[in-house]
Amino acid sequence: MAQNEYAVRLEHVTKTFGPVVANKDVSLGVRRGEILALLGENGSGKTTLMNMIAGIYFPDEGEIYVGDKAATIRSPRDALDLGIGMIHQHFKLVDVFSATENIALSMGSGEKFDLKKVHDKARAICEKYEFALDLDQKVYEMSVSQKQTLEIVKVLYRGADILILDEPTAVLTPQETEKLFSVIRNMKADGKAVIIITHKLHEVLSISDRVAILRKGEYVGDIATKDADEAKLTEMMVGEKVELNIERPEPVNPVKRLDIEHLTVRSAEGITVLDDASFPVYGGEILGIAGISGNGQKELLEAIAGLQPAESGASIEYYAPDAAAPVQLVGKSPKAIREAGIHLSFVPEDRLGMGLVGSMGMTDNMMLKSYGKGHSPIVDRKAPLALAETIKKELGVVTPDLNTPVSRLSGGNVQKVLVGRELAADPIVLMTAYAVRGLDINTSYTIYHLLNEQKKRGVAVIYVGEDLDVLLELCDRIVVLCGGKVNGILDGRKTTKEEVGLRMTNLVKEEQA
User: Fold this and answer.
1) 132-149 pLDDT, tens per residue?
2) In the chain, N or C terminus with fewer CB closer than 10 Å?
3) Residue 421 pLDDT level (bands cut at 50, 70, 90)
4) May I ask the CATH class of domain 6-238?
């Protein structure tokens, strides 16, 4: 078998959804023993294109070839029979079943059901590719990365030799990402064809052999990874050169809005996730929270918003505009805290599960926030409709119309709806978590701009983000969390990426002033 033979190839593929053209005349392929990164902004049609190979959508025009034969892929089962397996952003697992039982569920109809055989064959796959997976563990006890591993084992079990991974690292820590990449390299060495949908440029450069780029549903071209760098890929993806120049206006008369003292939060399992955190938050500045995922960022914001109980001895004082004395937030209900002007725009890992109702359109999702204002159960639809219109226009949400269920929008568009809704509430303290997670560059800048607008209005903005480059350019001060402890409060204008990175991973002993 020649090394340059295509495992799967698209020829002139077009797909439309009503008036929206998701893919237009795309031709590209992936070879056996190759890792192809599929790069593009949000809504550029990456997932739609791969869903056609995986049998979830059927192309309106064009052909898909598997090997050298034209293939008709009308369902995910057709795809699996051709050796194509896709691992989606949202996993499809049965929580109460063990790993082995989940793998058994995906067996073909002709196979005899024998859990021990399934277990042995699955274990052989895990050993071959060096997966760290306990086959007897129940899914609900697994971490995100273990669930993802299980999804990969599931398609390998079915004999897939063409694997498509949709944003596989979106919810992984850097360490888990490294593990996943070493497994993908093992699969490549075994002659499998791997396609990764992503928009994290540094990952593309470290894992792929070749990069194919989509822009607004059209195929722009491909480039060998060894000839690419971040600037070049960004230019192909966005169509123009992008410098990371986020505006950072100087804070004007910052006013203290929150004073957090000795905040400790324990998880349901009794583990201390936030350990004696103390720092002030000022209106008119953007305060960044840096830390490796899972170091207490989420719990910190949820404790301020009243969604997490704090341990005794903790104090969160809120200085409202024009108030004579600060108000203690610890012990207040989330509703009371929200009404006082403290808003949490949490873009959770599971945007649709926690943030929005997927089956409802944009207008209805706006109403979820404002229904408390009205007096009658018949809700005023004018205000949320106007808000949905504004957000759609200002943030460029791509949706066929305002009543299209948000679960049908691309991840980036879902995000804009979430963030836009919180901004519209005129907060005094605005907390955003992962506001640009999974967003392309242009959309991310829109959101940075919105946060800066809030800052200029005197809002206290707390920004939790993953990208250190952005934190260093956007934030006035940065609180670094390490192992749940505050490990330094740094000046965003003076600190370096190295210092923040070091404090995220090592507890630094501060000299007592």
Assistant:
1) 899 999 998 888 888 999
2) C
3) confident
4) alpha beta
CA distance 418 to 44: 20
CA distances in angstroms from 339 to 309, 425, 427, 428, 429, listed in the order given: 19, 10, 9, 10, 11
- The residue whose two tokens read 């060998």 is 224
Residue in this structure with the two tokens 């495992």, named with its chain if needed? 7
- In the chain, CATH 3.40.50.300 covers 6-238, 255-341+428-507
Helix, strand, coil percentages in the chain from 3-state DSSP, rounded to 5: 35, 25, 40
Judge: domain 255-341+428-507, CATH 3.40.50.2300.
no
The span from the CA of 414 to the CA of 349, in Å, is 12
The structure tokens listed for 348 are: 């959770």
**Residues 72, 112: Cα–Cα separation, whole Å:** 27
DSSP string, 148-165: HHHHHHHHHHTT-SEEEE
Task: Give the chain's length.
Answer: 513
Return the number of other C-beta atoms located less than 10 Å from residue 221's C-beta.
Answer: 11
For 425, the token pair is 């509430």
Residue 401 CB contacts under 8 Å (≥ 6 apart), including other chains: 361
Residue 240: pLDDT band with limits 50, 70, 90:
low
For 318, the token pair is 């809120």
Q: Contact 251/463 with Cβ under 8 angstroms?
A: no
